[in-house]
Structures are given as structure tokens and as C-alpha cells.
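Deviations from the work plan: none for this task. Representative record:
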Amino acid sequence: MQALFGQLLVGLINGSFYALLSLGLAIIFGLVNVVNFAHGALYMTGAFLAWFGLANLGIGYWPALLLSPLAVGLFGMVLERTMLRRLYQLDNLYGLLLTFGLTLIVEGLFHHAYGNSGNSYPVPEALQGGTDLGFMFLPRYRAWVVLVSVAVCFASWFVIERTRLGAYLRAGTENPRLLQAFGVNVPLMKTLTFGFGVALAGFAGVMAAPIYQVSPSMGSSLVIVVFAVVVIGGMGSIFGSIVTGLGLGLVEGLTKYLYPAASSTVVFAVMAVVLLFRPVGLFGRET
Amino acid sequence: MSAPGLQESRALYRLGVITPARKRIFFGVLVLAGLALPRLVYPVFLMNVLCLALFASAFNLLLGYTGLLSFGHAAFLSSAAYVTGYVVKAWGLPPEVGLLAGTAVAALLGWLIGALAIRRSGIYFAMITLGFAQMIYFLAVQLPFTGGEDGLQGIPRRPLLGLIPLESEGAMYYFVYAVFLAGFFVIYRAVHSPFGHVLRSIRENEPRALSLGYDVDRYKLVAFVLSATLAGLAGALKALVMQFATLTDAHWHKSGEVVLMTLLGGMGTIMGPSVGALVVVTMDNYLSGFGDWVTVIVGAVFVAGVLGFRRGLVGEALHLARNFPF
């Protein structure tokens, strides 16, 4: 029983990261119409910035939680302004290819600088320890990760679905030309949206640093799973990507308990089943 | 996805720069040059180029001619390599049987993955194929017969059909060359057949192809299976040449590499992927001393190719020939 809850908790943690990353992907895809392959690499960059800041500059976890996503977001905006922008009038597959190339560059640079091995990042003092719930031991940091991820996801959902800014964003997704005709600076909005989506990835990276090893390849294997999550959930709704992310994390945790060998492939198996019965994705809209 | 190279070659036909006679001479000279090449260049390098050229050409059938970006072609390359290696090494069967077994497995896998992936299009298609390829990668790590992290090593080169010894690199080269030419011919014929024209019409305008009465999904699936089969043939061949099958060929980097070859050489051109394979293999060879920088350089080439060089080398050459017809 202890083992089952332990694995479910691990699943919930993974699911939080799936949700955060697929949310960023969905926001970017919605307005900018780019599938950002570099999302994983930027998540890794976020984790590395936090690690680097602590090791060399004495910047702790709390400032890093703000500074690291900010830096990643700025980097993303530079990428959007200088490169991605040139591809908007083309097929959106070119955006995927461009960000794939960027992933190779970023990961290669980190490999060169820090090698293949992982670096550990300490859990911040305030969140060390945990509570015994009777049926399982709950480390405080892990509870924090789940809560914050869910909070950030819902805040994003609220901003997009319930505020004026979000209304612009949704309008831009539907019809960018018309929105521009109403005097909204759509190109700027695209830059900021890309920056925000990517900053979410950087934020997830900082959150992940104390849990996983900080290594150059931590992002790319994750992003492929997140792509599968996106296919399963459908990129149509923000809410859908949150639920799908958390749900699949739990499914993975359950598989790890029942049949550990299949835990790395179960998400893809779910993807196959969904494609068979509901090709648009669980929350996708028919187009 | 539009293939800029194709419009160029069509325009050249109209201008009379490309004529059937000139084409025959061009391919004739190329085939003869291929026969003489191992006297000048290291055969193992050439065989590597040929295997990857076949791989990329098979991939181009989907990307360049059908407009489907598969981001998981490493799955077919590697599964065929593993099966061929295993059949030849563990069961002691001759290379031609191994080649057939590997190719057949890739075809079956192509049918399974293709049938699911074509249910979505565009960007989703790419993500789905990437996901399934990652699944194959994890299976290759876990299944006992693949040798996990070590891969399959020391795959023997038995005599072909029990008669022709393949131990020497020279003999192996001509075998690889023959298989490559056969595979390339299949692709050439497929592209220039009525079937190929339907594929192009799907790429240009899928709803219109559908409304003209073509069963678009069926055509897509056939193209996918054909592409997977030939990618598998390339992988099986590679396992025999290199005498090993490893996880490198199953990794998503490999799926990206074949996109790079096709993009660099010119998608939607018949020669482009082969030229791209030559460039990428040469680059890998010369850069192997640079360690991690290889990935960075490959990434930079990728970015440059997407941003400013979408016609690819062959596409650019055709474009030049169009502006300066001879």
C-alpha cells in the first residue's frame, strides 16, 4: 500500500510537470502557431540557471524561481524576434524544424560545458522534511510542487479565459488579422506570448531542479512525452491540457506499481488507444 | 508542406533543360561512377552514405511528395537493423533472409504506426510519429534480444545466397550498391507513377484530392508503409555493413538527422536526399574529433537550412539552372 501511494505521488509530480509544459506548448501553439520542440531544452535551461546561480552566484531557490523563468522568457523572445518570426507565413512544420535545430544547439552547448552527468540541487530549507500521513510519507517539497503547479496552471487558465488580456489572446488565436485591424499590436503580442509560454518551461525547470538531477538531457526525453500528452489531450483547451497532464502522470505512477517495465511506454500506448477511438484528443474540438 | 524543389524541376522540363535523353545520360553516368567509386574512396564510408541515402530517399517519399513530416523514421531504421542482426547472428541465417526479415518487420511496424498516425495531420502527425518512435526506443532498451545499451555486436557477414562471399569490403560494397539502386528505382518509379501524382495532389490540396474521389487515407497509408519498408531496408543493410545494431539508430536524433538530410539536399527532389546524406555523413566524419560540438554544428546547420535555404542544395541548383538555362 505504501508503495502504491509512493508511486502515485511520483506520478502526480511528473503529471504536474506534464501539465505545466503542455500548458506552455498549448498557449504558444494557440497564438503563435508554432510547436515548440525547444520547450524541453528551455526547461533544462531553467533548471541549469537555478543550479548555476546557487553554485556560483549565491542566488538561492526563491529568487531563482523568479529570475530563471525571466531569463528564459527573455531568451525566448529574442528567438521569436530574430528567427521564428521569419517563418510565420510558411507551413508551421518549419517552426517545429527550427526549434528542433535550436534544441540541438542548446543541448549540445550544455553537454559541452557540463558533461553528461547530473548535478544535484538541494531542497530549499523552508521546504525540507515532510509529514507522515499514516498511509504514506509526504515530503514537503513534493507537496509544494504539486500545489504550485496546479495554482500556476489555474492562474493561467483564469487569465486566458476570464480577463481582457486573455480575450485578446483568444481573439488572436481565432483571427489575428481582424484583431490587428482593431488596433491591437499582434506581432508584439506574439512575442510576449512566446516569452510567457517559454518562461513557464523555465519555471518548471527550477521546480524540477531539487527533484530530478540537473543534466543537459533532462528536457528532451520529457518533451517527447509531453508531445504525446498534447496529442492525447488535444491542444484545444487549456483546462484539458492540465487535466490530461496530471491524469497521465497518475497513470504512469500506477503502471510503475503494477508493471514497472511498461512505465516508460504506457503514455504512448494510451496515445495509440486515444488515436484509435477519439483521434481529435480527449478535449480536442472537431475541426 | 510544400516542396519548393519540385516546382523548379517542373519549370526546367518546360524550358527543355531537362529532357528524357539528358536524364538517361545523367543517371547512366551516375550509375557507372558508382561502380568505379570504391577504387577512389574508402568503401565503408561509401556504404554508409548509400544506406543513409536510401533512408533519406524513403523519408522524402513522405515529406517531399506526400507532405507528411514523420518525426519517427528512426523506428523503422533501427527495428529492421535489430531484426536483421538478430536473425543473422543468433539464428545463423544467410544475409538475404536477414534483409528480408528486417524489412518485413519495418513494413509491419510502418503499417501499425502509419494507420494510427494518419488519423491526424500536420503538426500532430509529426508528434505522433515521434511518440511511437520513442516507444520503439524504450522497447529497444528493454527487450532482451536487442542487447540493451550494448546493442547487437559482431553480426557476421555470411556468403550471399550461400555462394558469394561478402567478407571483403569491396564485395560488400557492390551488394549494397545493388540493393540501393533497387530501392532507389522503386522510389523513382513510385514518384513518377500515377500513384505518385495522387500523392502530390494530396500534398498540394488534400480536400480537393478527396473531392476528386481519391481515398486519401488509403494513399497516405500506402505511402507511409512504402516509406517505412524502404527505410527498414536501409536499416537492415546498415546492420550488415557495420556488423552492429545499436540504440543510436533508434534515438530521436536519428529521426531528426534524416529530416536534416532531406532538407539540406532538397525535399521533393529525387536526388536531394542522397546529396543531403552525402553532406551529413561527410560532416559527421570530419567533425567526429570535435565531440559535443558536432551536435551544436548540426543544430546550427539545421537552423540555417530552415531559415534561409529551404530549397536545399539540389533545389538551389535547379533554381540556378532555371535562371541560366543551357
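The radius of gyration of chain A is 19 Å.
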